[in-house]
């Protein structure tokens, strides 16, 4: 974002922002974050009927030279898809769209964490047995030919009574991220340490990087390398990843100039402190007539958090999961008036509500040869960025 670079002031810890604010980690600016504060307006859509007007306000704000920062909740996908128009959008505790409209953000060198992040105890909404019941239903749909893959998720519940920005600073020591951050625009606060880029666009060039395929880190270097190599060669992980690559290529093709969609790399391993993840790259050139609403209607939610085919997977998810996902599996990001756009996929993302109640969701992709116990264990491994250890079974 060019405007931010023109403003050299760097905040210090004593200048911690007052609500409402958004802090967004900018992976292209040498470890600096962007601080958005004192919004000129807050744009919110809580129901499907509010979405079109919210996108119009967002477009109008960028035309006025304002920057947008905030999130789109997962259930926005139901509000945007015509097939779901006659059905009620699942009721989440957080908005479908929540963005602040700000003047140029300020670069902020996040102060180093004063202490390690606390290990927050989490209680899964589902036991292994309860998860297995839903898992088996997913397998039935797969073998019936309804879907190839379903991303099944569930919430874990805990408490945190401290400052959300301090928690983010501590957690990012465990898991550095390119595009994470904190959204504190309303009473609840969203903290996102997602390693997955949803899409980024500059000058109508758009790039996506789906993440599918997970392996736990090894204790010793040789074991760690062996686990990463196993992930590279694992047919199940490669199949999961390729399904989502094909899905995103199809989504992008409806928005892109004909002939510009291409895969840049396949099955690339990215390593984080607690796990290895498999990613692939896709890029395209957006048509000049694509609006913000078109962009989200065409791409949202990311196929890596639904399954394939996307619409049928979303129907099954709505029927099987025990609660709306909210911000989790949505997208957190920023939109500049010059068209520079960056969003993550809001995994490794938690919401802290007034009073200290906290929800952190986890999930995994189920395919024909998945095993229930392994998938449930993978879900709990993904919560270790917050728990520091295995989540305790309910």
CATH H-level superfamily? Anthranilate synthase
Quote the average pLDDT: 88
Measured as a percent range, the helix fraction is 25-40%
CATH architectural grouping:
4-Layer Sandwich
Low-confidence stretches: 1-13, 390-394
Please give the alpha-carbon distance between the first and last residues.
Answer: 45 Å
Protein name: Aminodeoxychorismate synthase component I
Pfam family, one: Chorismate_bind
InterPro entries: ADC_synth_comp_1 (IPR005802), ADC_synthase (IPR005801), Anth_synth_I-like (IPR019999), Chorismate_C (IPR015890)
Domain Chorismate-utilising enzyme C-terminal: 128-382
Structure overview:
This protein is an alpha+beta fold and 394 residues long. It has a single domain (21-204, 290-386), classed as Anthranilate synthase (4-Layer Sandwich), CATH 3.60.120. The protein contains eleven helices and 20 strands. It has helices spanning 2-5, 51-63, 76-80, 128-143, 164-174, 221-233, 235-253, 292-299, 310-320, 372-382, 384-387, and strands at residues 21-25, 33-37, 41-45, 67-72, 97-102, 106-108, 123-124, 149-159, 181-184, 189-192, 197-202, 205-208, 211-216, 262-271, 275-285, 307-308, 331-335, 341-344, 349-352, 357-366. The strands form two sheets. Strands 1, 2, 6, 7, 8, 9, 10, 16, 19 and 20 form a ten-stranded antiparallel sheet that branches. Strands 3, 4, 5, 11, 12, 13, 14, 15, 17 and 18 form a ten-stranded antiparallel sheet that branches. Mean pLDDT is 88; it is low at 1-13 and 390-394.
């Amino acid at each position: 974002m060019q405007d931010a670079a023109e403003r050299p002031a760097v905040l210090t810890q004593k200048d911690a922002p007052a609500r409402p604010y958004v802090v967004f980690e900018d992976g292209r600016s040498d470890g600096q974050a962007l601080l958005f504060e004192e919004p000129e307006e807050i744009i919110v859509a809580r129901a499907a009927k509010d979405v079109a007007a919210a996108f119009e306000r967002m477009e109008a704000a960028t035309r006025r030279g304002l920057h947008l920062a905030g999130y789109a909740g997962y259930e926005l996908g139901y509000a945007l898809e015509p097939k779901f128009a006659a059905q009620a959008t699942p009721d989440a505790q957080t908005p479908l769209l929540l963005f602040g409209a700000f003047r140029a953000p300020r670069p902020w060198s996040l102060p180093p964490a004063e202490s390690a992040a606390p290990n927050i105890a989490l209680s899964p909404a589902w036991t292994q047995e309860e998860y297995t019941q839903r898992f088996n239903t997913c397998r039935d749909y797969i073998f019936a030919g309804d879907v190839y893959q379903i991303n099944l998720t569930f919430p874990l519940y805990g408490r945190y009574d401290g400052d959300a920005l301090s928690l983010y600073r501590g957690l990012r020591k465990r898991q550095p991220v390119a595009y994470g951050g904190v959204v504190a625009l309303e009473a609840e606060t969203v903290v996102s340490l997602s390693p997955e880029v949803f899409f980024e666009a500059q000058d109508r060039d758009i790039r996506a990087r789906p993440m599918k395929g997970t392996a736990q880190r090894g204790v010793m270097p040789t074991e760690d390398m062996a686990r990463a190599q196993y992930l590279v060669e694992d047919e199940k992980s490669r199949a999961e990843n390729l399904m989502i690559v094909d899905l995103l290529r199809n989504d992008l093709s409806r928005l892109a100039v004909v002939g510009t969609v291409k895969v840049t790399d396949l099955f690339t391993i990215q390593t984080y402190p607690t796990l290895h993840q498999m990613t692939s790259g896709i890029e395209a050139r957006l048509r000049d007539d694509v609006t913000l609403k078109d962009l989200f209607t065409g791409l949202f939610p990311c196929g890596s958090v639904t399954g394939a085919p996307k619409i049928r997977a979303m129907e099954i998810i709505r029927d099987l999961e025990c609660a709306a996902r909210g911000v989790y599996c949505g997208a957190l990001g920023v939109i500049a008036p010059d068209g520079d756009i960056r969003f993550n996929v809001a995994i490794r993302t938690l919401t802290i509500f007034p009073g200290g109640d906290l929800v952190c969701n986890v999930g995994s992709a189920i395919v024909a040869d998945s095993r229930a116990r392994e998938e449930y264990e993978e879900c709990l491994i993904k919560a270790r960025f917050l728990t520091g250890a295995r989540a305790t079974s309910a």
